């Protein structure tokens, strides 16, 4: 039978019994999100504190360590090619740390690596119905970022694609451009479910209402720089003199690739061809010519996601809601 001391337990007592340093005990009990320690050690320290009745940090239902998995649908390599998703993940981690929420990153939707003891999940990117169901098996406290999950019953934050596209079309029209094309994106979830480009849907709807939609002006890629380059090369080759005077591009990596193809073809920007990208990451700010782009507030969206998660953790039975994050067009050298 284990003896229990009648004296108050100290950090030194916990450290000795758990086999770790006093500093490690202190940081774990104070929920230091910057501490890099494996889950077994963390749980051993917490259990030892409970066993020794360390009341200063004794956890209750309302004072439990909140640990949230950040599920990024991209791999680390893909993140480097698309700074949009990297910026969202990094700001979520910073905002969570400020709130005292511990986070664990999971890449490429590797759902098998999500720890079973997480209290919530912030999922970034695109997910199939079956993947949503798998996430649900871990926890019901899920917030989706850049994916509309409201119909599935989960909180979500999404950019305002409709008004973003509307602002792009209006900008081209204000420059006297009515022949407008688009380099759209197409991709699949990590379990091979096709993800449609909502920007293309709103683009087609907007132009059809105005009677200026031309399906032959639409080219697609996979959101990578190379696909943007190849799509623009094909547009230039297929259309020749009929190449539109304005082209909207679905994301920044594609836009950078498209810009290279236009420059190789010696097409004057913006006099012969105006270009507008979407996302407005550093990729398009520092190319030459710098690109006009729809700015999406990734930092604001990430911080809002953490706020929504904090509310969800506090009130898990509350109704889900959808937050639409506003956008605005920033004009640079690729438009007049």
TrEMBL record:
SMART domains from the UniProt entry: HTH_LACI
Keyword match DNA-binding: yes
Keyword Oxidoreductase annotated: no
CDD domains named in the record: HTH_LacI, PBP1_GalR
PROSITE patterns: HTH_LACI_1, HTH_LACI_2
Entry-linked InterPro entries: HTH_LacI, LacI/GalR-like_sensor, Lambda_DNA-bd_dom_sf, Peripla_BP_I
Segments forming domain HTH lacI-type: 9-65
GO molecular function list: DNA-binding transcription factor activity; transcription cis-regulatory region binding
Keywords: DNA-binding, Transcription, Transcription regulation
Domain of life: Bacteria
Entry protein name: Galactose operon repressor
Organism listed in the record: Limosilactobacillus frumenti DSM 13145
Lineage: Bacteria, Bacillati, Bacillota, Bacilli, Lactobacillales
């Amino acid at each position: 039978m284990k003896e229990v001391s009648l004296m108050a337990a100290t950090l030194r007592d916990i450290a000795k019994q758990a086999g770790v340093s006093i500093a490690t005990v202190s940081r774990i009990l104070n929920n230091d999100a910057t501490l890099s320690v494996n889950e077994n050690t963390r749980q051993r320290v917490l259990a030892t504190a409970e066993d020794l009745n360390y009341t200063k940090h004794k956890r209750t239902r309302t004072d439990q360590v909140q640990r949230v998995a950040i599920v990024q649908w991209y791999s680390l390599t893909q993140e480097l090619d698309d700074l949009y998703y990297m910026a969202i993940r990094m700001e979520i981690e910073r905002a969570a740390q400020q709130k005292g929420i511990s986070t664990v990153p999971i890449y490429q939707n590797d759902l098998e690596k999500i720890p079973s003891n997480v209290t919530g999940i912030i999922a970034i990117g695109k997910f199939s119905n079956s993947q949503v169901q798998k996430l649900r098996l871990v926890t019901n406290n899920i917030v989706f970022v850049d994916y509309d999950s409201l119909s599935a019953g989960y909180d979500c934050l999404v950019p305002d694609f409709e008004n973003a596209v509307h602002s792009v079309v209006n900008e081209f029209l204000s420059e006297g451009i009515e022949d407008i094309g688009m380099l759209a994106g197409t991709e699949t979830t990590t379990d091979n479910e096709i993800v449609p480009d909502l920007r293309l849907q709103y683009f087609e709807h907007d132009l059809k209402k105005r009677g200026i939609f031309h399906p032959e002006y639409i080219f697609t890629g996979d959101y990578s720089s190379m696909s943007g380059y190849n799509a623009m090369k094909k547009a230039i080759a297929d259309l020749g003199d009929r190449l539109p005077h304005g082209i909207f591009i679905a994301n920044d990596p594609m836009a950078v690739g498209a810009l290279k193809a236009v420059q190789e073809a010696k097409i004057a920007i913006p006099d012969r061809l105006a270009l507008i990208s979407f996302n407005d990451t550093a990729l398009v700010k520092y190319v030459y010519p710098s690109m006009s782009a729809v700015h999406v507030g990734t930092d604001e969206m990430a911080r809002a996601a953490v706020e929504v998660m904090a509310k969800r953790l506090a009130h898990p039975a509350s109704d889900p809601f959808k937050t639409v994050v506003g956008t605005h067009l920033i004009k640079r050298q690729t438009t007049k």
